[in-house]
Design goal:
Strand content of chain B: over 45%
Shape of chain B: globular
Structural class of chain B: mainly beta
Distance between the termini of chain B: 40 Å
Largest sheet of chain B: 7 strands, mixed
Helix content of chain B: under 10%
Distance between the termini of chain A: 29 Å
Structural class of chain A: mainly beta
Oligomer: heterodimer
Shape of chain A: globular
Order of helices and strands of chain B: EEEEEEEEEEE
Largest interface: A-B, 27 and 23 residues
Low-confidence stretches of chain B: none
Number of helices of chain B: 0
Strand content of chain A: over 45%
Amino acid sequence: QSVLTQPPSVSAAPGQKVTISCSGSNSKILNNYVSWYQHLPGTAPKVLIYDNDQRPSGIPDRFSGSKSGTSATLGITGLQTGDEADYYCGTWDSSLNSWVFGGGTKVTVL
Amino acid sequence: EVQLVESGGALVQPGGSLRLSCAASGFTFSSYTIHWVRQAPGKGLEWVSCISSSSSVIYYADSVKGRFTISRDNAKNSLYLQMNSLRAEDTAVYYCARDYSTFYFFDYWGQGTLVTVSS
């Protein structure tokens, strides 16, 4: 059981918006910056968001991140078939000296 | 171009050992903390271990502590994971990933190498 909780799946039609939540199990778990990763089967995961809300160069602004209290959120607008993938939040847990990932959310484009 | 290439994955019997390698290129390897992350079949990403640039700081997930050993050779631009006392639940694709700045986020990942623990 992950210390970061994500919904197992979300879905929407092409062009629509989805949001993925990432909730911490305790008040300290999200004291550090949250990052988000996209993972397509058989490929290397890719960072979409770091520092809670920053996009690396090359990541389209359809992807956005936010954080409030012990929860973080990834938003994807203008959903495309190529966005079908698993998405993970992650952060460093300084109390455990370990990196923690959420359980992952599968995005399906209907 | 930053590249991380894992190797060493194989089929191994329970209780056996295996050594994974991660060859880095395209950046100053000795300046970065590097992590191992794995994904078991049908499961999510699981952090395994990390090692700081000078090897002075090393951490492990509880699930592998005492069985796995992470190391690096900065002269060879290489990261290693020595896995002993392997269990069926260690079956996974193992990725190495570069930390942008210690415990910050993973900016580059390798393609992964498959470890299967089975009799």
